[in-house]
Amino acid sequence: MNATAHTHERADAARNRRRILAAAARLLAERGAAALSMDEVAQAAGVGVGTVYRRFTDRAGLLYALIDQRERDFQAAFLHGPPPLGPGAGPAERLRAFLHALAERTDQQADLLLMAEADSPAARFEASYDLYHRHLAMLIGRLRPEADAAYLADALLAPFAANLFVHQRRARGMTLQRIRAGLDELTAGLTRSG
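Structure tokens predicted for AcrR family transcriptional regulator (194 residues):
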């Protein structure tokens, strides 16, 4: 096998991936996240259930693939996009913009994130979380060099656990604006000048 075969997805595998994701998105839109099963996705995609499991390992893997494009867009925005979310603004403005954008992003895919975290409890602390944590720790370090930036980054990310976020939005009836205002209160000590 040549190196190209290892680095590029086979055409039939890419086609199956697209079919599986399209079927999963359709089922999700029609019946909600709770109704999404690997067997039903395979049947809707016209592939064997083994193909779905080989491609995505488990339901959490499938859910994260559905989440992936929005996640890529969000990461591009805070890493390379325009200020204040992206580079070019001060650390206080970037911190606020990041937390507000993360609240919106979490709200938009709350059901998927909730299911992914329920299916794989460690999933919350994988690649995206690490990137968010490093980004927040960097901003906190610029604002307050003496602070424990690693701890504070975890503390600021805690409200984005899907189960808590969904509970606040649905059971407690908190608006997205109220959650953003609360995040502003949490960061007030960090962002206060002087």
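The mean pLDDT is 89.
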